[in-house]
Each structure stands twice: as structure tokens, then as C-alpha cells.
Amino acid sequence: MKIRTILLILFFAAGFETYSFSPGNHYNLNITPKKVTDNGQGFQFDKENLTYGGYLGLNFGTLTYVNISPLIGYWLTDQLLVGTGLSYIYYRQNYSMGGGSHQIYQTNLYGGRILSEFQFLPSVFAHGEIEYLNFNHYDFLSGDYNRIWFSTPMLGLGYSQPMGNKGSYRIMALFAFKSENSNSPYYQSPLVYRIGFLF
Fold it and tell me: I want to staple 97 with a disulfide (CB 3.0 to 4.6 A). Which of 8, 93, 101, 105 is the partner?
């Protein structure tokens, strides 16, 4: 039973992440950074530096978890990515209360996030983000459910393995700050794991 519980928690925390980005090798630290100035005119937007994608997380059973989170990013340099995205999570869990009774908790979480990544080694990157989620939270004082907004700063490291010309496989582990707050959607589970691909 403990192994099943641990697997369910890992599935809840895990997401499958996909990105697409412009041609170019974002893993070679010896290449010249992308130009952000042009003849003293300041920042020049280049659509070739845009990246699109998101991540998808799925789990079904006693715990049902569906996460759809698209994002858009921009490579400021060959190593520095900034971006923003939306998040939607459907969460449903069936709790056994003993004596054959069950209680079901379900909620739709939605919101957004801003993020930044810096690739400081050819296959290793640092990832930071602030996620804002709105969800149905149980208030122990009133005994009612209320929708609340909660912001969660996250920081962690990731590993990427190139696949083909533009793609890469990546795995990421993030620490969700403020998880000790009982209002947090990551209450007492501060580690967030993501597995994904770059295209």
C-alpha cells in the first residue's frame, strides 16, 4: 500500500513537458549569444528566438490528475530563456474513510506562471518560476470549500539530453517554496518532478 501511495504522489507531481524552439544549438556554451542590441537601438525582437510548448501530466485511478499547461518563451541568449504560460489541472481523489465509506475531493486548478531558465553546463540548466493557481480549498474553520489564489515560487535543476537537430529529452526537479502553508496546493509535498521533450 505504501508503494502505491508513493507512486500516486509521484504521478501527481510529475508532468510531461514538451517545447519547440527555433533552429540553433542551445547546448553549446562556446557560441556567441544572440544579439539583443542593434546599432545602439536597444532590444530587437527576433521571432526566431520564440519557443512554444507546454507540459501534459496524466494519472487515472483512485487519484485522477490531468494537467494541461501551454507556454511561450523567448531565448534572450543561447543559454537564457524567459517565458510565461497558463496552467489547468483537474484533480480528483477518492479517500477511503473506513467502514466502507468514501469521500471524494475534486477541484479544477487554473492560473499561470512566469519562468526563466539558464543553461550553465551543456546538459544542465537551472529553472525558476512563480506559479499562480486558483483552486477549491477546504477551510477547516468554516467547514466549507472556498476558491483561493496562491502563488508558489519554484526553483530547481534540470538535465537535458539532445535528440536529433532540435529536440531534447529533459528531466527536472523543482522545490516549491511556501509548501508549509496549509493553503498551498503543494502542502507537505514540496518536490515537483517534470519529464519532457524539446522539439
Answer: 101
d(Cα 64, Cα 33) in Å, to the nearest integer? 43
d(CA 158, CA 136): 31
pLDDT at 188: 66
How wide is the angle at C-alpha 83 spanned by C-alphas 82 and 86, nearest 5°?
160
Residue 156 CB-half CA count within 13 A: 18
pLDDT of residue 190: 83
| Residue 156, amino acid | G
Q: Per-block average pLDDT, block size 10, for the chain (199 residues)?
A: 42 37 37 46 80 76 80 89 91 78 85 94 94 87 87 94 73 87 77 74
pLDDT for the residue numbered 199: 62
Instruction: Classify 5 as helix, strand or coil.
Output: helix
| Partners of 133 in beta bridges | 111, 150
Around Cβ 43, how many Cβ atoms within 10 Å?
A: 10
DSSP-derived secondary structure letter, 103: E
> CA 44, CA 37: separation in Å to the nearest integer?
6
pLDDT of residue 80: 93
- Beta strands 191-198 and 15-21 are parallel
Of 74, 90, 80, nearest to 33 by C-alpha is: 80
